[in-house]
Write the structure tokens for this entry.
Amino acid sequence: MGKVVLKLGADISTDDIYPGRYMATVLPTETPQFCFFDRTEFNTQLKNKQIPQGSVIVADLNFGCGSSREQAVSTIKGHELVIVARSIARIFLQNAINLGLNIIICPEIEAEVGHELEVSKDKVVNKTTGKTFVNEQLPAARQAIIDAGGLIPYTRKLMLEATK
Amino acid sequence: MGMTVVEKILARAAGVPAVKAGDVVEPKVDLAMSHENGALVMNQFKDIYEGTGREARPWDPSKIAIIFDHRVPAEGPKTATNHKKIRDFVGKHGIKKFHDIRGDRGGICHQILPENGYVRPGYVVVGTDSHTTSHGALGAFSFGIGATEMASVWTLGVALNVEVPPTIKVNVTGAFPKFIAPKDLILHLIGKLTAQGANFRVIEFHGETIAKMSTSGRLVICNMSVEAGATSGIVPADAETMRYLRDEAGVTDKIEAVTPDADAVYERVVDIDVSALVPQIACPHTVDNVKPISELEGKKIQQVVIGSCTNGRLDDLQAAYEIIKGKKVAEHTRMLIFPASSRIYAQAMERGYVQEFMKAGAVVMNSGCGPCLGIHQGALGDDEVALATTNRNFKGRMGNPKSEVYLCSPAVAAASAVTGVITDPRKGGN
Ligand code: SF4
């Protein structure tokens, strides 16, 4: 169960999630401080650890559009937030899968800040309104990477097999 | 069943006779490009080998390209240290397609790759940059990936689990009127498709207008295909591709064109006639918020930027030069010009463009991304408005979330720099 802590519109860009001016910071251990940096109040709450892990960001269509910067994923992953979006831009989706960020594509989702959501692979239940929304499954091609726990362990395994 | 150009490229790269949209393949990568974010790729690459007892060595250094462009020269110690780490890595592994901060061979990655002949028709190109879509202009299947995925490519030499994307065919007809450019075409198309209209899809460009378009123009439309969400834009290789590769990129060895089958299956077909197109402006804060210039004329602007991997090429500078020569940039407006590569910079000097720009009051900066991504060089002040030939106008893109960025063609940018307000270049005075 996670509480909705932020509700966003359509076309949320990677510049919004992780402004370009902090791109010299690359390490996943260092990026979380700049998460949604220009949404000052939210960023401050994150930095002060006022938002519990597993909290949910709900977004409309095309979440994560724009740049390929992986910081936009590691910055959210660092706080272990869950993204429930009506659709997700391609590169962001792949980066999220590769880094093991919990993302849910839920085309009909309706939820407001403060609502309690029960998020599973197949559906999202809004406990506050009592409504259930069916998820779109992530691309099947990527399931093996998710199952392996991300692209690094997945590639490591393939590399070891290839160089036995 | 016929195949689209991308299906053909993927089938070849995956070593299978045929593929169709939705199939999952693991294509061999012909070129793997990174810029400053190579620092993160290196980190992830090391991680893959962590604890395995194997030495981390890239699969094929001759297929890796690294270009410094996003923050050049370095704006601070962090970037400078990233540059240094990458230089060490490049030296250690003998990566030859490396372009450091230099006035003889530096520039923006999406110009350096084509102008050096690194991209060929039929290639599978991946880059840790979303505008890697640009290289579809040379008939390659070229798409953006994240740093971890690049680390995986450096390890294995293939792109893992790629789902063959469906293709949207865009058929372009008509001749461009004076002052209307490929930038107006692509802005118009993005407005039509919306920012997500081509998500997970390829845009394949066809038609008489594309056949007549230079590679420079094709780079513009493929570059911005990603702003409609596309995995890639592509112009199947033709006579112009060969001319560019031979005459401009100096390629002497064999070039093989890959073209789509006549009975290829497209998800949809979009027709555009450019003969009635007017200058297009993408308004804040999404690229698909496209309006005809008539709705914006007279809007005051504090900064004009001409450059970027979209419109920083010689023909773009020429379009600006023809409007700006003998005139002055408005007093309340700053005009910043970033040639896309050192080669273009030198050509612009030889042709006298740079001198005219400076006489007019413009500042001609070093080749690189500059203000396009808002890290250094030309950030905006609070409530300031910029008009740029770049490709993104997201909130905060030019370094300040309290500013606005409008996108346009080089001709509109130059005409507006003179007046200090958004100006239609077709209306006299120019
Ligand atoms: S010029 Fe702008 S869009 Fe192009 S590669 Fe550089 S930052 Fe990206």
About this structure: Chain B has two domains: 5-272, 280-419.
